[in-house]
Structure formats: C-alpha cells, structure tokens
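User: Please predict structures.

Assistant: First:
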Amino acid sequence: MRLLLELDGHAVTTEERPSVAVEKFQTAAAGGVAFQVVITDLAMPVLDGYKVAAAMREIVPGTPIILLTGWGQQVSAEPALRSLVSETLGKPARLADLRAALERCRSIGQA
C-alpha cells in the first residue's frame, strides 16, 4: 500500500507498531506538522485500529482516518466506534477504492 500511495504522489510515513504510530502522530502534531489522513489496520495486537483512531482523534480531532479490515462486514456496528473512522476499506484494498476513499477524506479535511 505504501508503494501504491507513493506512486500516486503521496508522502507516506509508515509504522508497524501502533503505539509508536500514535507517538509519531503526536510528535508531528506538536511540531505543527499535520497528517492529512491516517490509514490503520483494524486487527493489531495491543492497540486495535479503533484504539489508534481514538488516540489520534484526541490529538487532532479532525484528522480523516481510513480503517483497513480483512473482516469484511464484521467491523463494529457500535456507533461510537464507527464514528472514530472516516472510511472503512476491505483488504486487500483495490486501488480505485483507496483513491476514492482518499478523495472523500480530502473533502473532510477541507471542511
């Protein structure tokens, strides 16, 4: 996914460890550098995608967040959890779907 995003002209920061990703996000925000969108996986050890989204929403509330999941329709139906993310994409995400989600997130970020 990183390569696809870079080929589409996006600057990409990656991190495999969710807690470190949140730390990097916080450090960037404290330094005045905002991420335009965050893409996170749902199923991760210790911090799942919803917990990552919640932590990042506390730091910068308006950041669009795309949740990737291999669980299909088994994502949470709980409104409080669903409201943490802007978009949900199944894995593997198709390039057209990713582009469309990023475009929708772009409009969220400008609102």
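Second:
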Amino acid sequence: MSKLVFAINVSLDGCADHTVAIADDELHDFYARWMEAIGAVLFGRITYQLLESYWPQAPEDPHSTPSEVAFAGAINAVPKVVFSKTLREVSWNNTRLVNGDMVKEVARLKQEGGKAMSVGGISLIRTLLNLGMIDEYWLLIHPLIWGQGRRLFEGVTERHAARLADSMIFRSGVVVLHYIPVREKDRKKGIE
C-alpha cells in the first residue's frame, strides 16, 4: 500500500497561499528531492493550474536559478493526477485528469502500492484528512505573518492527533516539521 503524504508551505499565522513561501534555493532543493522520491503528486484544479502555468517553461527562463531548474525537472517528470469536476483536459506532461470520485480514486491508487504519493492543495487535504487517508504531514513553516489568504486546516471537522517524527531548520528560518498521524487504534494503546 502506498503512503499518502502531504507537504505544504504555510505562514506563521496558518496561511497556505503560494505567495507566502520564501522561495530560495534551499526550498527549491528540498522540493526537488521531494518530487524525485515520490511516485505521483495529486492536485486539485487550483493548485494544478497555478503550477502548470509556470513550471513546464521554467527551465528555459534565463532568470531561473539552478535550483529552480532542478525543481522544474523533477516536477515536470513526476506523474501527476488532477482531480477536477470542471477541467475537461490537461496539457502538462505526465498528467492524468480525474473527473470522477476523488476518494475512490485515491483509495485505488493507495492500494496499487509503490512509492509514496504527495498531495498538493488545500481543498484536497481537507477532504482526505477528514477521511483519515493522510499518512504523513510535512509542514514548512515560513517566518512570515501573512494576515490574509486561505487557512491551511480551515474546514477540518475533527480532531487529528499527530506525533513529531523529525524536524529541520533552513537558513532562511523556515522550520520543517514532519508529523505522523496518531490513529484512533494507537490512541487507545496510549501512543500519542
């Protein structure tokens, strides 16, 4: 069974808008390694369209840093699955569109096994988190108070416990927190 892993940039005040990130080489290097380690990335329409509008062309941009080019190569190569009820086609290479039942498709993909899959996008994470389908969280906390934008876990309907598995700090002050969910069966055993 494949793990479903969620990684996202978030501000100190919980905003998960793409503009809150300190998009330096260290961050791009982290996400390039991330994309190379996973078997697929799952997107909602909004996140897909945001990334698809820039990253396929980034390697040809003369202003791209080597780290940005490496990330572009990794995200362009990884298989991508887009869940949308409104999109009719996708053009980014290695991308498959799913207009049907997201939960059934994610469950099917997890059952296939293989490398972990990454979830990108706030709407997807809310649904999958509420259903207990996320196996790991990687929160990249940026030392910024944004004050506006979409809140990361807004709309989550239940308590979800997790234990800290690892952490690291980037030179920019970004703190990376790696959490593993504590399932109900583990809570009953006293693991929390």
